[in-house]
Amino acid sequence: MLTPAQLTGRDSSHLIDYQQHQLQAEVAAAYARMCEAAADQGVVIAIASAFRSFDRQLGIWNRKFNGEAPIYSDRGELLQTEQLSTGEKIDAILTWSALPGASRHHWGTDLDLYDPRPFNTTDNKLQLTAGEYAEGGPCYDVACWLQRHAHEYGFFLPYARYQGGVAAEPWHVSYRVIAEAARNNLSTATLASALTDADIEGKRCILARLADIKERYVDNICTDNGWSDVWCG
């Protein structure tokens, strides 16, 4: 069982180094088996992101809140930060970026995956956008393979579809058995404790809404295996 500090990304002692990233050992082993199976079918999978610390997530959050990084609507439209209320800004950020302390990437169970081959040149950089994983996109084969086969290796897609919380993320897989235990153990009180002393923008509004934020953006996931006829025909 992860400690409160491990659940909220403030302690990474439960992780091992793996391919320039950090994961739990069981997750790394399952991922290696999955990649080997995909490669046997001509699909190349690589890790874009794995463990992310509280401090790194905090930096992402504050840059977006302060208008130093773009934020988007649930339809992917660029928003003007200065025109949003604090609450609107928080919801817009949460659609695409996790609250520090509440990111699934803190647990060492979740990975953002892609096909590295189209991005071998400096002219073409991965953005982790829906278009890259849609039909005709450079990571479409990866998206289809993960939807069909990830569950065979213990993974699922928590954001396979948009359900009013986090936007659809066809690149995001989660190692179910450990991740679900972590999510169930992450309480609102644990989150509040991690955030109270943090230098996070919008803190007062976040803490006032924390239970609702957790329900909408942390617990509101796709619990099936992520298959979608829309994406893969």
How would you portray this structure in words?
- The mean pLDDT is 95.
- This protein has helices at residues 4-7, 25-40, 54-65, 86-96, 130-133, 140-149, 176-185, 188-196, 203-208, 210-218, 229-232, and strands spanning 16-18, 21-23, 46-49, 110-114, 155-156, 172-175.
- The protein is α+β, with helices and mostly antiparallel strands.
- The chain has a single domain, classed as Muramoyl-pentapeptide Carboxypeptidase, domain 2 (2-Layer Sandwich), CATH 3.30.1380.
- The chain starts with a helix and ends with a helix.
- The strands form 2 sheets. The chain has a 4-stranded antiparallel sheet. A two-stranded antiparallel sheet has the order 1-2.
- It has 11 helices and 6 strands.
- It is 41% helix and 9% strand.
- Strand 1 and strand 2 form a beta hairpin.
- It is globular.
Strand content: 5-15%
Largest sheet, strands/sense/barrel:
4 strands, antiparallel
**CATH top level?**
Alpha Beta
Radius of gyration equals: 17 Å
The number of E-state strands comes to: 6
> How many independent structural domains?
1
What's the architecture, going by CATH? Answer: 2-Layer Sandwich
User: Please, how many helices?
Assistant: 11
Organism: Pseudidiomarina planktonica
Keywords: Carboxypeptidase, Hydrolase, Protease
GO molecular function, one term: carboxypeptidase activity
Pfam family, one: VanY
